[in-house]
Backbone:
């Protein structure tokens, strides 16, 4: 299965930023974890991180053109206010899973709102990096 994994702003700083919240594993460990699972299960992953809204939107549009079958996205802080990212996600009709490493509902009020979740298939929050793996399991199950 062809899957796009998108990570938004500051997720390249995993292992550096707020370790009590996001853990000590770095971004590279996350990509390794995902690639190992994908390899075992025969998926093709495109893993992309950007601190820029437009770059994430470009990747979503590219996914439409290259027949990507599912998207796993952690939009970072864009989750809470990016209508442009929401519109990009809404424009493609493939399964899209929103993942948050931390439990955003336990945190500041502004993190309780996601403008992107309503246009995604589902959302996984607060399960650490494991959330990405569960999202991959869902995409596989939904396809079969
Ligand atoms: C996050 C939660 C967001 O509120 C925050 O801005 C992030 C990471 C998470 O994975 O828990 O950058 O998306």
Residues:
């Amino acid at each position: 299965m062809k899957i796009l994994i998108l990570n938004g702003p500051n997720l390249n700083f995993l292992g550096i930023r707020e370790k009590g919240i996001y853990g000590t594993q770095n971004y590279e460990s996350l990509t390794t974890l995902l690639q190992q699972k994908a390899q075992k299960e025969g998926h093709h992953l495109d893993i992309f991180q950007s601190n820029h809204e437009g770059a994430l939107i470009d990747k979503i549009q590219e996914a439409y053109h290259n027949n990507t079958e599912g998207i796993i996205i952690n939009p970072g802080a864009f989750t809470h206010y990016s209508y442009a990212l929401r519109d990009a996600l809404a424009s493609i009709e493939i399964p899209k899973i929103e993942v948050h490493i931390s439990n955003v509902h336990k945190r500041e009020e502004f993190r309780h709102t996601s403008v992107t979740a309503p246009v995604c298939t589902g959302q996984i929050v607060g399960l650490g990096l494991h959330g990405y793996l569960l999202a991959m399991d869902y995409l596989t199950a939904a396809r079969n």
